Amino acid sequence: MRQYIFPLIVIAVVLGVALNLAAGLIWVERRLLALWQDRYGPNRVGPFGLGQVVADSLKLFTKEDWVPPFADKPVFIIAPAIVVATALLSFAVIPFSPGFVVADLNIGILYLLAMSSLGVYSVVLAGWASNNKYSLLGGIRASAQMLSYEVFLGLSLLGVVMLTGSFRITDIVEAQRKMWFVVPQFLGFVLFLIAGVAETRRLPFDLAEAENELIAGFHSEYSGMKFGMFFVGEYIGVTLISATIALLFFGGWLGPWLPAPLWFAAKTMFFICLFILFRAALPRPRFDQLMSWGWKVMLPLALVNLLVTGAVVLARR
Amino acid sequence: MLSLVRSLWEVFRHAFARRVTVQYPDEKPYLAPRYRGRIVLSRDPDGGERCVACNLCAVACPVDCISLQATEDEHGRRYPEFFRINFSRCIFCGFCEEACPTYAIQLTPDFEMGEYKRKNLVYEKEDLMISGPGKYPGYNFWRVAGVAIGGKTKGEAERETPPVDIHSLMP
Fold first, then answer.
1. Distance (Å) from the C-alpha of residue A298 to the closest C-alpha of chain B?
2. What confidence tier does B117 reach under pLDDT thresholds 50, 70, 90?
3. What is the pTM for the complete model shown?
4. Which residues of B touch A282 (CB under 8 A)?
5. Which fold has domain B31-138?
6. Are A131 and A121 within 8 A, CB to CB?
């Protein structure tokens, strides 16, 4: 009996944490952005404006579920579900603390990368189904961006995998007992951070959305809870990339004094805040700049990192 | 690349800067004495209406939001029969105040005029009238104007000499 109940509890906790965090992050992001822009942000509803989350989600739920008559209806409806589904599925391999993981796959990192790449289908399909030139441009940009950044997103992680000798995320965390991987793999960390921002399509790499040139790009035709799904999916993606950075480069749950899940949560939260700081501080590059940067700078750097790491691992054997 | 890191740091430092937001309903902003807000009609120091219904404000108004009808009381004093300002049109430019020869119409530092019904933004004379003299405490148009009204003939105004008798030869 126990072997059925415990996984169910784990699944419930992981889903609950991921979804509630996504909703809460809307508030966190607005407050933090306001803090860095010398404003207050939402501080009216409830203590510290926390009730804003409830108010916003109630508003989204009660909005009209509108599908434009010119849209490709089935695809239009499925698209927002894909981003949330893939992001939530990725959480299956994220260990919150030793033993507390839905599926401790021995190819955890590969699964993670595969799932987060599938998320781009959501954006491309949404842009296509909206039957709107701006949305389509957003979708095309998202796919091109994904193609160029996905490559070194994976390559930047391979250094960590080489040092550990395993794709299993729990093994990678345990291998950081002596030293966090951010020290030997600093270049890999920076590359992964940049690729991660591009992967979640957040500022400064939100060219698929680009509200001031593409009027919200792929989701300009979306409203109500379908739009909300894109929003939630984006925040789950941010949480996922932050959790991955914390796990692979900053020792996950390892740390003195505090219990393991708290360390993991604190490290993840730090990177979520960093994501928001990126949004507050950095301007969006032009599209050709983004592409040439990805292919001509980041990819060679990732390959060099890979070569050097491989050489060091071989030499020390 | 270094400039990006620098701008990240600069933005992060703003976390400790003073916030510029004025939290309005709790914290009222300072409004200058000459702030152009809600329009009022003021009274003489002795309580009479200042407005002489000359229509200059209605003429000066660029959005035609003032309408009034002149009439006279038993003393020959002109006053508006009705005086109506449509605040849903008013742009608070203050031209009416500048045009007014008797300091009757004045703009005040008050802007909290929100209404749930558009119609309620049309203010009638009793909504506009205030009990005091507003920005010009001592001024009384009828006391200084050389116009004859009931209870005051020519030459009885302040600093006014009696009119010259044009039928007399004496200097």
1. 13
2. very high
3. 0.77
4. 4, 7-8
5. Alpha-Beta Plaits (3.30.70)
6. no
